[in-house]
Amino acid sequence: MKSYLPLSVLLALLAACQPTTKTYAPWHDATEHLFEEGLKPFYHGVASGDPLP
Q1: Domain ranges in the chain?
Q2: DSSP state at residue 25
Q3: What whole-number distance in Å separates Cα of residue 39 and Cα of residue 46?
Q4: 3 and 10 in contact (C-beta within 8 Å)?
Q5: How far apart are CA 52 and CA 5, in angstroms?
Q6: pLDDT tens sequence across 2-52
Q7: What is the tens place of the pLDDT at every residue in 29-40?
């Protein structure tokens, strides 16, 4: 029984330390189509709460 414990710990460590090969899709902002360039001062000053310089 004692010999199984170090082996199981070693296998658990090896499994936990395996490098991941996940690839992530490029970031796509779902709200970018809602932004209008003509309303830029509104977005900066009024909607965000920041005063205009």
Answers
A1: 4-42
A2: P
A3: 10
A4: no
A5: 65
A6: 678 888 999 998 888 888 777 888 887 787 777 777 766 655 555 556 665
A7: 787 777 777 766
